[in-house]
Design brief:
The structure is a homodimer of 355-residue chains.
Chain A: E1 9-10, E2 35-42, E3 45-46, E4 50-53, E5 57-59, H1 64-68, E6 71-73, E7 76-80, E8 86-89, H2 91-104, H3 112-125, E9 137-146, E10 159-168, E11 176-180, H4 198-213, E12 218-220, E13 229-230, E14 237-242, E15 245-248, H5 259-270, E16 275-277, E17 280-281, H6 282-291, E18 294-301, E19 305-314, E20 317-320, H7 328-340, E21 351-354
Parallel strand pairs in A: 1-4, 11-12, 11-19, 15-16
Antiparallel strand pairs in A: 2-3, 2-4, 2-10, 6-9, 7-8, 7-9, 8-21, 9-10, 13-17, 14-15, 14-18, 18-19, 19-20
Protein name (chains A, B): Branched-chain-amino-acid aminotransferase
Family (chains A, B): Belongs to the class-IV pyridoxal-phosphate-dependent aminotransferase family.
InterPro entries (chains A, B): Aminotrans_IV (IPR001544), Aminotrans_IV_CS (IPR018300), Aminotransferase-like (IPR036038), B_amino_transII (IPR005786), BCAT-like_C (IPR043132), BCAT-like_N (IPR043131), BCAT_family (IPR033939)
């Protein structure tokens, strides 16, 4: 994976913006580093990747991404350890997933050697943007968009694969309460829910706004057919702790195969936490909340790592979760971050050194 | 509707591209007229619409349309009659629908007076691009995209509403055969299938490619829950003629409320064609095909008007439809086009004069 032979065109920015950046007061995903990676697909092939100064794209108004939503993305993070070494966390998972997403949206696969050589070079050039300290990271956003001109509803013949990077502190602030969806849906069987397809996200904004109006920060989506089963939160997979047992929904063509999710599943075994990967009934979670057996709900995702949920709403009722000293959420988050920041052993080989 | 008071900024192109355009050999949606309409949403309001020379957009790589698919569109046509008058067909339906689509994707509604004044002015400026003759038209593509910079997964605060126009001949060439979907889905209950959301289209490309590999041109989507009911074709609503009776699926949160579809429903009554708007079982269509009662299948949509289907595939079997002299498809297409081109009475008030 690290034996790169592909060429790479590099044009450096004449001046860095880093001095103008307040790293103590970052809004998530608003500030970008000095450089970006851009690679065009034309004439049936991905061309030489370019690293160049971060700046605007010029696209025809008829570019297919604007009309038919042919766009997929990934979310990753780079971490800097105490010795100024830079680490990625399971980047092979993100690489494979963006190509799975692309396949489902009829976008050509991106070559592995281009992805890793360009990403690592980009991180080295913008390494000063990665700040040390637990919680600090560089959020990395690889994405692909259809750039071909023309409004006929067919897959494009031209694409852009890009990587942009944004310095990040912790993603969420404040307590998070979620609403279990009773009417709206995120994904259909046989649809694109498992893909990080751009259109999956826009579809969630309106129902999420309704949930916000009702006093919640996010929605936990239920299955579109019956709304009886809890699936995922749109930007996070979801885990439920009932008694000492952890439960999470299986991945499917509706549910994203989250990297943090699968890492938590592995760690649960290491920690001897009983875990069931199976469909989760709304009713069983409500019953567990009422009987006091529901101890925790938390979300997992690259941006948030582990996001504890303080309470939830369903069918007009609101439920609060207990405040635990020894929460699973805390245990997993601590372990994952220690792995990510090179502060503990990495027995699964999840860390990836950027050298 | 036609009493416009809004202002409009107009910058004309220095040189027309019309002489370079071969109107006898147009590829659908590839060539655009000299001008376009652009209107920005910033600071909580739509600003003054602009008509300006057709040209590229400059967007930040983090613009939300690229990452979260906040994008909706419409398809309309302008027609020129024998006396050089320009007509639209039920544009109020498209205007209302783009705002319904926008609402579902958390995009602010566009003002009616801006839409009509800017569209009509654009058509007048580019009127030479609308060619006379049955089948010739100007395809009009209004669309909205989220332009705000930043990769946090939340509705944008900045948008662009645009109208671009492309001269068109007939949309489909050759015979069209469709595959009834058995596995893949277009939309979920509680999802965005009823909206002209960009992401709905990208999601169809991969299954449509599989159908093409199997010898079909399009997919007729079935309901995601059971795949037992026929819904729509993604860019067309679908009608089935069994004996003398016409059947089409009801609109829902999964099925687009097509303008051509609803016009056909109205005309069916005028023509005394028995019509049932109800769920259509795959099984009843297969049975009708086997017994010889299935006479026609046709799609309806702005680009194609009425698109006769020659055959279909399901569960590994292929079915051919009879060639009828007196097809409903032909009757509807002829009537609709005569209304569109101002060659017959317009008793429903569907024509809209651009003056």
């Amino acid at each position: 994976m690290k034996n790169h032979t592909s060429t790479l065109d590099i044009v450096k920015a004449s001046k860095s913006k880093i001095e103008d950046t307040d790293f103590e007061n970052l809004t998530f995903g608003k500030v970008f580093t000095d450089h970006m990676m851009e690679c065009d697909y034309v004439d049936g092939a991905w061309q030489t990747p370019k690293i160049k100064p971060y700046g605007p794209l010029q696209l025809d108004p008829s570019a297919k991404v604007f009309h038919y939503g042919q766009a997929v993305f990934e979310g990753m993070k780079a971490f800097k350890d105490k010795d100024d070494h830079i680490w990625l966390f399971r980047p092979d998972e993100n690489f494979r997933r963006i190509n799975r997403s692309s396949e489902r949206l009829a976008i050509p696969a991106f070559p592995e050697e281009y992805f890793f050589s360009a990403l690592e070079e980009l991180l080295k050039i913008d390494k000063d943007w990665i700040k040390k300290g637990f919680g600090n990271s560089l959020y990395i956003r690889p994405f692909v968009i259809a750039t071909e001109e023309g409004v006929s509803a067919a897959p494009a013949k031209k694409y852009k694969f890009m990587i942009i990077c944004s310095p990040a502190q912790a993603y969420y602030s404040g307590e998070v309460r979620v609403q279990f969806s009773e009417k709206y849906s995120r994904a259909a069987d046989g649809g694109v829910g498992f893909a990080k397809a751009a259109g999956n996200y826009a579809a969630q904004f309106y129902p999420t706004n309704l949930a916000k109006d009702a006093g919640f920060q996010q929605v936990i989506w239920t299955d579109a057919n019956t709304h009886e089963y809890l699936e995922e939160a749109g930007t996070m997979n979801i885990f439920f702790r009932v008694g000492d047992k952890l439960i999470t929904a299986p991945t499917s063509d509706r549910i994203l195969d989250g990297v943090t999710r699968k890492s938590v599943i592995t760690l649960a075994e290491e920690f001897n936490i009983p875990l069931e990967v199976r469909r989760v009934k709304v009713k069983e979670i409500i019953d567990a909340a009422k009987s006091g057996e529901l101890k925790e709900i938390f979300g997992t995702g690259t941006a948030t790592v582990i996001n504890p949920i303080r309470g939830f709403g369903y069918a007009g009722e609101k439920y609060e979760l207990p405040k635990l000293e020894d929460s699973y959420a805390k245990v997993f988050k601590d372990k994952l971050m220690k792995i990510q920041y090179n502060e503990t052993e990495d027995k699964y080989g999840w860390r990836y050194a950027v050298k």
